[in-house]
Design brief:
Number of helices of chain A: 5
Number of domains of chain B: 1
Structural class of chain A: alpha+beta
CATH topology of chain A: Muramoyl-pentapeptide Carboxypeptidase, domain 2
Largest interface: A-B, 27 and 25 residues
Pfam families (chain A): TRAPP
Oligomer: heterodimer
Subunit structure (chain A): Homodimer. Component of the multisubunit TRAPP (transport protein particle) complex, which includes at least TRAPPC2, TRAPPC2L, TRAPPC3, TRAPPC3L, TRAPPC4, TRAPPC5, TRAPPC8, TRAPPC9, TRAPPC10, TRAPPC11 and TRAPPC12.
CATH topology of chain B: Muramoyl-pentapeptide Carboxypeptidase, domain 2
GO biological process, one term (chain A): Golgi vesicle transport
CATH superfamily of chain A: Trafficking protein particle complex subunit 3
Distance between the termini of chain A: 53 Å
Number of strands of chain A: 4
Number of helices of chain B: 4
CATH architecture of chain A: 2-Layer Sandwich
Keywords (chain A): Endoplasmic reticulum, ER-Golgi transport, Golgi apparatus, Lipoprotein, Palmitate, Transport
Function (chain A): May play a role in vesicular transport from endoplasmic reticulum to Golgi.
Shape of chain A: globular
Helix content of chain B: 40-55%
Strand order of the largest sheet of chain B: 1-2
Order of helices and strands of chain A: HHHEEHEEH
Helix content of chain A: 40-55%
Order of helices and strands of chain B: HHHEEH
CATH architecture of chain B: 2-Layer Sandwich
Strand order of the largest sheet of chain A: 1-2-4-3
CATH class of chain A: Alpha Beta
Chain lengths: 166, 150
């Protein structure tokens, strides 16, 4: 049941806030945990969904939004491409189930990225399919923005960089 | 079903993350277990509130324990407790022969000493649930052979 997941996540964030004073430390910790989850979740995802190989970054972003998010969190964010080069995408969530029981961030935790775990998960999962990416929160409803927006920037693969050096 | 995989992974990461932080920092192992247990405690309190909103009042302690074994366990772990024993003097033993959080680990003796870490959260879960139903309790866990636990 999703409530167990959401409540557990909330308890985890609360515990991390007690352990670490700085918001950045909590954010880093969440991201690292998310990464650990992502590298394992991708196996589960590929086994359950049997999606075929993606041939472009935009296809990958679509699969993440429409299949993965739907499967694990029950919501489907909308995808938009935000760069001409075609390697930057935004996932826009108007309903984020992880914050179902959270009303607002406490005043002393203003820069806490409550759902930073999600960024780590996406980053870890992509890395396991050999796609390096940077994933961050661009907008966050808990901080007063209208929607929650996650930005994925696909980085150039390591092989390209090697060629350039030669 | 997919949520379950996510919860399992999250739980395992939590255990690993907390112990990793303890190794680097000052905390000893005992504190990690306490932290995990208190996290489970909070979650247990919240969960039991949501589950029992519409159910009738419980007649006695045994009734509450049966609820935990059947409905609560099913909602959380998708199966019931396999065996409930009591001495009718306040001690109850719940046995689960295929504990969901331990099935992912190999069944040999190798990892037996690490198993308790994974049970701390669930102990807290039960303790929190019982407290909100009006019972003060101490919950301990014992693993003699994976993946069964008491």
């Amino acid at each position: 049941s999703r409530e167990l997941l959401v409540l557990t996540y909330g308890a985890l964030v609360a515990q991390l806030c007690k352990d670490y004073e700085k918001d950045e430390d909590v954010n880093t910790c969440l991201d690292r945990m998310g990464y650990g989850i992502g590298v394992r979740l991708i196996d589960d995802f590929l086994a359950r969904s049997a999606v075929k190989k993606c041939h472009s970054y935009s296809e990958t972003a679509d699969v993440i939004a429409q299949v993965a998010f739907k499967m694990y969190l029950g919501v489907t964010p909308s995808v938009s491409c935000s760069s001409a080069a075609g390697n930057e995408f935004s996932l826009i969530l108007d309903k984020n189930p992880l914050v179902d029981f959270v009303e607002e961030l406490p005043a002393e935790r203003a820069s806490l990225c409550y759902c930073n775990l999600l960024c780590g998960v996406i980053r870890g999962a992509l890395e396991m399919v050999h796609l390096a990416a940077e994933v961050t929160f661009l907008q966050d409803r808990l901080k007063g923005d209208a929607v929650t927006e996650i930005g994925i920037t696909f980085l150039r693969k390591a092989e390209d960089r090697k060629h350039k050096r030669n | 079903m997919a949520d379950e995989a996510l919860f399992l992974l999250l739980h395992n990461e939590m255990v690993a993350g907390l112990y990793r932080a303890a190794e680097q920092g000052e905390g000893e192992n005992g504190r990690c277990t306490t932290k995990l247990e208190s996290m489970g405690f909070r979650v247990g309190q919240g969960l039991i509130e949501r589950f029992t909103k519409d159910t009738a009042r419980f007649k006695d302690e045994l009734d509450i324990m049966k609820f935990i074994c059947k409905d609560f366990w099913t909602t959380v772990f998708k199966k019931q407790i396999d065996n409930l024993r009591t001495n009718h003097q306040g001690i109850y033993v719940l046995q689960d022969n295929k504990f969901r959080l331990l099935t992912q680990m190999s069944a040999g003796k190798q990892y037996l000493e690490h198993a308790p870490k994974y049970l701390a959260f669930t102990c807290g879960l039960i303790r929190g649930g019982l407290l909100n139903l009006g019972i003060k309790s101490i919950v301990t866990a014992e693993v003699s052979s994976m993946p069964a636990c008491k």
